[in-house]
Amino acid sequence: MSVAEATVDIKNRLGLHLRAASSLAQIASRFSSQITIARGKNQVNARSVTGLMMLGAEKGVKLKVRAEGDDAREALKAIQTLFEERFGEE
User: What helix, strand, coil percent values describe the chain, rounded to 5?
Assistant: First the structure.
C-alpha cells in the first residue's frame, strides 16, 4: 500500500462550493484509496460532499490532500489536476 500527499491551492473564484465539492467527491469515488482533504485540523473524507462543504474553503485557501491505498498516486494526480483546472469553471 502506498501513501501520496500534496498541498493544493483553491484557484477558482467561488472556492469549494457545491458543484466543485461534487466534482471532487466524484473523482475520489473512482479510486479504491482512502482520500482525505484537510484544512488546518479539520479533515474530511474526499467522497463526502457535505464534509467538503463544511471545510468552508474559499479562493486562496491551501488544502492538504492525502491518498492511501494501491492507487494513491493516481488518485492524488487526478485531484491535483481538478484543482489546477479550477474545477472547469474558468
Answer: 40, 30, 35
